[in-house]
Amino acid sequence: MKSAPSRRSFVQSSALIAASCAIPSFADPSQANGKPSPVNLGLASYTFRNFTRAQMIGFMKQLSVTALNPKDAKDHLPMDPPDEAKAMADYTAAGISLHAAGVIYFPKDEDDDIRVKFEYAKRAGISVIVAGDPAPATLPRIEKFVKEYDIRIAIHNHGPEDKVFPSPLDVLKAVKNMDPRMGCCIDIGHAVRAGADIVESIHEIGPRLFNMHAKDLTDFSNKDSQVSVGRGIMPFREIFAALIKTNYKGFVDLEYEIHGDDPMPGVIESFAYMRGVLDGMGFRA
After folding, report:
1. Which burial class, exposed, middle or buried, applies to 20 when counting CB atoms under 10 A from its CB (0-12, 13-18, 19+)?
2. Which site among 95, 126, 139, 266 is 20 to 30 Å from 146 CA-CA?
3. Residue 8, SS3?
4. b/e burial code for range 171-183 (CB count within 10 A of at least 16 → b)
5. Alpha carbons 262 and 49: distance in angstroms, whole number
């Protein structure tokens, strides 16, 4: 019987081989074999935080990725309404759709500050706000706006450094008795560092899971061990299987936080690996 590291190496190699074999159709994943994937892959714009919107759109075309989770970084999705409208026009022209926005922070327990963030999402036609570290005391006020705007809140966990929401299960504890549109964005890299089992967390959070940020680590106790997806020890096949079993309809957004000045090699490898895993499960993505 193979040891765990050998099995991991075999899975990684198989996924990369599958991805490399699919390179002729990489520009058009719809031409791959298999059923359409029930796991939706997208991109967190923070990956390209050092690049302009125009550059990022060019990168997304190379990646054959059309689903974006933008952030107010560079000019990706500015908070200023006229500039936001220009960004939306550019994305529409490029065939890019926005499914979430964030991370967006809610530092004030004030209606005016919270409404600005919901108006921002509403103008962009975004149905999920990925929220960073809202104070628990602010959640009832945020819930009021969730009901008014019918926009879901996905609170992002930030690992052991986050004293309020280190794990997705900490988010669940805070929102489980609130409106069903109050939920969670699991950042899998931060979650494992907080001791969470990602597969179990997916099942426990269930219908309150609205977004996922994907990354990979070689050491679940070390924030600085991030690598391209497939080079670490994150159990992506099991994660995808759990998402399928729980009928997750949101996106798995790659958030590649390393090599900020030259992310594309790692981003290409990460999408190739995730697509390879899905291909091995009988899906095309």
Report:
1. exposed
2. 95
3. helix
4. bbebbeebeebbb
5. 11
Peptide bond into 229 cis (omega under 30): no
* Nearest-angstrom CA–CA distance, 101 and 149: 15
Q: What is the pLDDT averaged over residues 56-74?
A: 97
Residue of 142, 146, 130, 272 lying closest to 213 (CA atoms):
130
Give dist(CA 146, CA 107) in Å, integer: 17
Sign of the CA dihedral 234, 67, 105, 177? negative
**Residue 158 Rama label (left phi>0; alpha psi -120 to 50; beta):** alpha
CA distances (Å), 70 to each of 5, 17, 95, 186, 237, in order?
36, 31, 15, 16, 26
Tens digit of each residue's pLDDT (9 = 90 or more) over 214-246: 999 999 999 999 999 999 999 999 999 999 999
- What's the average model confidence in pLDDT over 276-284? 96
| Total length of the chain | 285
Please give the Cα distance from 103 to 26 (Å, whole number). Answer: 29
> What are the structure tokens assigned to 106, written together?
């809610």
Residues 6+ apart with CB under 8 A from 160: 166, 193, 194
Instruction: Determine the Cα angle at 253 with ends 247 and 258, to 5°.
Output: 145
What residue type is assigned to position 44 of the chain?
A
Residue 61: other Cβ atoms inside 10 A: 14
Burial of 203 (C-beta count, 10 Å sphere; 0-12/13-18/19+): middle
> Residue 110: phi, psi to the nearest 5?
-135, 140
Residue 15 above 70 pLDDT? no
Confidence band for 33, pLDDT divided at 50, 70 and 90: low
Q: What angle do CA 32, 128, 124 make, to 5 degrees?
A: 90
